[in-house]
Design brief:
Distance between the termini: 31 Å
Oligomer: single chain
Largest sheet: none
Helix content: 55-70%
InterPro entries: Homeodomain-like_sf, HTH_TetR
Keywords: DNA-binding, Transcription, Transcription regulation
Radius of gyration: 19 Å
Organism: Plantactinospora siamensis
Strand content: under 5%
Number of helices: 9
Number of strands: 0
Pfam families: TetR_N
Low-confidence stretches: none
Shape: elongated
Protein name: TetR/AcrR family transcriptional regulator
């Protein structure tokens, strides 16, 4: 299996935004004669703002989240915020890109370890569901609250969904499937819509339970009903260890 599906995605070992509190004492800025270099300080403040934004937006909603709220949650000053971002929307988009990059790299790693696309796609789907469930604030921010941000955020989401198509690059639709060029987009969109409904309903913890159903939905256009049913049974039986976002506390 290919190990380079996504180019330029974030390191899969980087913490997912929202997996930590923004005011995490371990990331306090050192003062005095041994203070950290400016670039290290800026990177630390950015990461704390990523976490602060995720928690603030998940709690208050994007429309009600103020820059001052995000700064307070991150323990970062407003001048430092505006040195890194143009405003709330810019900070949201940067957080979204970084977080989905981390998630994609985790999915890619799971896919690359599989023997074929069926096993790889199922493993990647499990990572998606498990990681979102392990960081509910990020799931809420990235899946639901993105709807309130505007056209730029919708373009980011469309670009993300397009990247998911890579997990089906080696799959071949059944001969009786109409419009095969649109098939993968429909499968990806259906999975995303199902996840969105669960997250919007506040049922983020239930996402891993969707794996057998979504595996069947994902596989049936390519493998037929009997083949998809076998994949769903494999998904229900486990098929690998649960995935947890970097720095997320195990449940």
């Amino acid at each position: 299996m290919s190990t380079a599906i996504f180019s330029g995605a974030s390191d899969s070992t980087a913490p997912l935004p929202g997996a930590r509190e923004g005011r995490d004492p371990s990331r306090a800025i050192k003062r005095g004669p041994r203070r950290q270099p400016a670039e290290v300080v800026a990177a630390t403040q950015r990461d704390r703002l990523f976490d602060g934004l995720v928690h603030t937006v998940a709690e208050k909603g994007y429309a009600n989240a103020r820059v001052s709220d995000i700064c307070q949650a991150a323990g970062v000053t407003r001048p430092a915020f505006y040195a890194l971002f143009e405003g709330k929307e810019d900070a949201f988009l940067a957080t979204y890109r970084h977080g989905t990059g981390v998630l994609l790299r985790m999915m890619e790693s799971a896919y690359a370890e599989a023997a074929d696309w069926r096993d790889g796609a199922r493993r990647a789907l499990r990572v998606l569901l498990d990681v979102l469930a392990s960081v509910p604030a990020f799931a809420t921010m990235a899946i639901v609250e993105i709807d309130a941000v505007g056209p730029a955020a919708r373009r980011e989401r469309d670009a993300l969904l397009e990247k998911f198509h890579a997990f089906f690059a080696e799959a071949r639709p059944r001969p009786d499937v109409a419009a095969p060029d649109e098939l993968v987009g429909s499968v990806v969109g259906g999975i995303y819509a199902t996840i969105h409904r669960r997250v919007a309903a506040g049922r983020v913890a239930d996402l891993p339970a969707l794996l057998p159903t979504l595996t069947y939905f994902m596989a049936v256009p390519f493998l037929g009903r009997s083949g998809a049913a076998r994949e769903a049974i494999t998904a229900a039986d486990g098929g690998g260890s649960p995935a947890t976002a970097p720095c997320a506390a195990p449940s």
